[in-house]
Specification:
The complex is a heterodimer of chains A (146) and B (142). Chain A is of the alpha+beta class and 146 residues long. Chain A is built from three helices and eight strands. Chain A has one domain: Hotdog Thioesterase (Thiol Ester Dehydrase, Chain A, Roll), CATH 3.10.129.10. Chain B is α+β, with helices and mostly antiparallel strands and 142 residues long. In chain B, the strands form two sheets. Chain B has a five-stranded antiparallel sheet with strand order 1-4-5-6-3, covered by helices on one side. In chain B, a hairpin with a 3-residue loop joins strand 4 and strand 5. The chains are: A alpha+beta (146), B alpha+beta (142). At the A-B interface, helix 1 and strand 3 of A face helix 1 and strand 3 of B.
């Protein structure tokens, strides 16, 4: 049974633009926050230590996001994170968000593990990979819920 | 030959993260900046006029970006915008980012015109479309 990491964040005043809806780059900030929380609470790999002690990082390789409906100040954004694919150095994630039952954004987001010493991608450490595998979505479902 | 709108951004301290490279979220703010400046300078529709006076907006429908190499403090990022596809109410931008000759990112960024009263999409008026057409590159590139 593959796990889904779920978090819920409030939409704050600072996320919103003069049109009264979330300024789209803030969605990427919320997406990154969900990844950080996944590391710390889902994988039990404290993200601050991963970056500051181990001198590693997870820069974005590519991202593709569909925005399906606006989010407004006061909304609560539920985010679901699944692993679609684990490469040698890369991690492909499906990150879907909802306000209530209404889809907000759906992202296919690929990061790699990199070393701050070389600024180059490195293989995912074995123990971390094993923990990530528990979040791997069954391929027949394509990882992204309808 | 399609026109290309260019914006230069010096990578500042505030753009960078604890891993020492630009936090990717900040690239999307820069992508928004090149779109905003293109509307103001190339199309003659500054965002304040668009949003406040005309009560229309161009929210993002979908966006995709590939990041090839990290950007660092002090880099001069050159963003180049053209239009891959001009729809009835949507504009799909092709945006490339480079530092010198090194390509750093390539984005496909789709926005659609909406009424701010209803948040429903509405056709781009002809006078705006005519100003946008020189930037249509016909789908090549990103």
């Amino acid at each position: 049974m593959s796990k889904v990491f779920t978090v819920e964040y409030p939409i704050l005043f600072s996320h919103c633009d003069p049109a009264g809806i979330v300024y789209f780059p803030r969605f990427f900030d919320l997406l990154h926050r969900a990844m950080e929380d996944w590391f710390t609470f889902g994988l039990e790999e404290r993200f601050a230590d991963f970056v500051m002690e181990q001198r590693l990082g997870i820069p974005t390789v590519s991202t593709q996001v569909d925005f399906m409906g606006p989010a407004r100040f006061g909304d609560s954004l539920k985010i679901e994170l699944r692993v679609l694919k684990l490469g040698r150095t890369s991690i492909e994630l499906a990150i879907d968000s909802f306000i209530g039952a209404q889809p907000c954004f759906k992202a296919k987001h690929t990061v790699c593990v990199f070393s701050q010493a070389t600024f180059k991608a490195i293989p995912i450490p074995d123990d971390l990979r094993a923990r990530m595998e528990t979040y791997l979505s069954p391929p027949q479902r394509g990882g992204v819920p309808a | 030959m399609a026109r290309v709108f260019t914006l230069e951004r010096r990578i500042r301290f505030s753009h960078c993260d604890p891993a020492g490279i630009v936090y990717f979220v900040n690239f999307f703010d820069m992508i928004n900046s090149v779109v905003e400046d293109w509307f103001g300078e190339a199309i003659g529709l500054p965002f304040q006029v668009m949003h406040r006076d005309q009560r229309i907006g161009f929210p993002v429908v979908d966006t995709g970006c590939q990041f090839f190499r990290p950007c660092h403090l002090g880099d001069l990022l050159v963003l180049e915008l053209s239009i891959a596809r001009l729809g009835r109410s949507s504009i799909e931008f092709s945006i490339r980012g480079r530092v010198g000759d090194e390509e750093k990112l390539r984005a496909r960024h789709k926005v659609a015109m909406v009424s701010l009263e209803t948040f429903r999409s509405t056709p781009i008026p002809d006078y705006l479309r005519q100003r946008m057409e020189p930037y249509v590159s016909g789908g090549g590139g990103a």
